Amino acid sequence: WDYSNRRFKLYVNGVLQSLTTTVPFNGIMPDLNNIYIGDISENYTQNTSIYDGVKNSANGEFDEFKAYSGELKQFDVIKVYQNELAGKNFDGSSRSEPSCINIDVCYVDNFDRAELGSKWSIIKKQNYTPQINSNKLILTNDTSNVATGVTLVGEFPSGNNYIEIEFEHNAYGGSGADGVTIALADADIVNPLIDSNLTNIAGAYGGSLGYANRTGTDGFKGGWLGFGFDEYGNFSNPTEGRHGGPGFIRDAVVVRGEGNGQTGYEYIVGTNTLYPQVDNTPI
Fold it and tell me: Could you write out the DSSP letters of every residue in the chain?
């Protein structure tokens, strides 16, 4: 995007594919606010979270997004393409995966095997056993009352620490229920339970997403924070014994806090309904 000449250019694999100089724009560029990538912004109702039903989403995945401080010339675009094609960073510097010698530092897993292995432990298997299939960790099938969980064996130091978790999430089949939680828990509580081969560490099934409590079923043992990717909408709902929350919200990301047994796991914060949805089928 060339601001001075109001011109857009599109390159594919370093080759110019399209150029337009008919961008309707006058005056000072306003604040960008929300940026939509892979869709058309007019398809979102102004100042609301309601999608108008017109589907123009890109059919694919974005690997990286970069914003530069100025316009890239064709030579720059070609150089970025050649560098990244060669497995380097955009500027030609070396690119490599993190060095994960010690689990206290980092851990990378592409599930390129048949069994979970020694680094993972099953912490719940109610009506289904977590397993690896086609380089994916499968946590549920499409039957009812399933609650499962796995944990990465080991500890990450939390004091003055930054923890980053990156993963690919796939949700499909069934009727849109319920979701999955990424949980951070107290290793001093969880590790002894794993050592004793206890497989009922995770929380309740259904809207509790294996983290929060449910009437008659305790929450995640040692649970500190639960980040819920909620397809059906009940992780935000203060029903079935859960504590706090604005109510039923489908396709949302929700955070609940620490708890013990039937106490705690309070609602902290959550989104409105997200578009695109958490799962791949609108419900």
Answer: -BTTTTBEEEEETTEEEEEE------SSPPP--S--SSS-GGGB-TTSS-B-S-----SS--------SSPPPHHHHHHHHHHHHTTS-TTS--------SSTTT-------SSS--TTEEEEEEESS--EEETTEEE---SSSS-EEEEEESS----TT------------STTS--EEEEEEE-HHHHHHHHHTT--B-S--SGGGTTTS-BTTB---TTEEEEEEEESSS-TT---TT----SS--SSEEEEE--EETTEE--EEEE-S--SS-SSSS--
**Burial call 139-162: b when 16+ CB within 10 Å, e when fewer:** bbeeeeebbbbbbebeeeeeeeee
pLDDT at 43 over 70: no
For residues 55-66, give the mean pLDDT.
65
* Span 122-132, pLDDT tens digits: 888 888 899 99
For residue 141, give both structure tokens. Answer: 């099938």
Quote the pLDDT of residue 46.
46
Which tops the pLDDT comparison, 117 or 50? 117
Mean pLDDT of 144-160: 80
Mean pLDDT of 157-167: 78
